[in-house]
């Protein structure tokens, strides 16, 4: 038996794990409360966690038997949280009626939140494992608990992570999305409607504090909205409406009152976590999310497939005899292949496995020709529609320097292929990764999908 007592010691983490856990408990527990601003309450939801609950025994045994390092999470657990919270974004965008002119901004917004949510989800999975690990030793006696006792203590933690806290996080995603997407529309319409009004839901749950913010009117580009644009708390139901100049004046707009309004709001929204704008920023603040402290190096380094997600290495995966054969195109057939994939306008439009719509345009086409990847091209749609893994993270590239990409990886007989999408959702390039010493470089950052 390995010495589990050391696990409780501070040397394995830059921060004391008990401090990290305390902080998580304090911050996340607050998400069960009513919103300080509008009195919005915690809504119970049903999540389909069967897939991950089936793995629970294996997860607990791995931790108890010390067969998984502190630097590693369970990829399935991280992806379960990512997929669940991402479905909150889809729920939130479904409620919006978006004109075509918003689509480019919306795609950029979705890219930003996607990265934020899967990062949050990975951090959440690390925090959960850290809490389990902390249950191995009985703090009263300093002795190791039996596995059954250990499991019993872990069950309570599991319930919080997979149900109560997840509900509040899901609601934060839905409300953050509704308000974030509204923001994009407000920006489009601000010539005619240059003002926003804060609307706290008025019902019997409305609190005194909410009255402080209800009805505040500020110009849309006022600094007020960079901090106090709703949601302003866990379970917040606050909204905004957009007004014309005439409407704003009629409803009591006072000019040059921003400082006063900021002070009023600051007294109500005490938690800095919520002082943001999900239209211009991200849903989960990365500096103040307690879960992030549980990440290896607190998330300051890129995670990797082998060390941090516990996945097999590429060489191992490529030994699998059932891998598909890549289609090797002929350089002279490139135009013909492009025409088969593209619309009449010569652009290839395709929806990827994660639901993002991409446009492969003339720039992409020219890049494939200039970089002589025509032979790899016939596999393009297969890779983005049926990838083996999708990662988001930085990649050192000869052409682009070190840049953030969403990376679609697919294993074919002999080598993996990759399609790279930039942070604005524009496809940049695709190729077979010929050099096996660089295979793992593509599997770094945040895991978004695994077949
Ligand atoms: Zn609220």
Summarize the structure in words.
- It is a single chain.
- This protein has 14 helices and ten strands.
- A hairpin with a 2-residue loop joins strand 7 (401-412) and strand 8 (415-421).
- By secondary structure, the protein is an alpha+beta fold.
- The chain has helices spanning 17-29, 50-53, 56-64, 75-94, 103-133, 147-188, 208-213, 224-228, 245-250, 258-268, 314-317, 334-341, 362-370, 380-385, and strands spanning 195-199, 217-219, 239-243, 348-351, 357-360, 389-397, 401-412, 415-421, 427-432, 446-450.
- The protein folds into three domains: 2-177 and 289-294, no CATH class; 190-270; 302-450, no CATH class.
- The structure holds zinc ion.
Structure, briefly:
This protein has 451 residues and is an alpha+beta fold. It has three domains: 2-177 and 289-294, no CATH class; 190-270; 302-450, no CATH class. It contains 14 helices and ten strands.
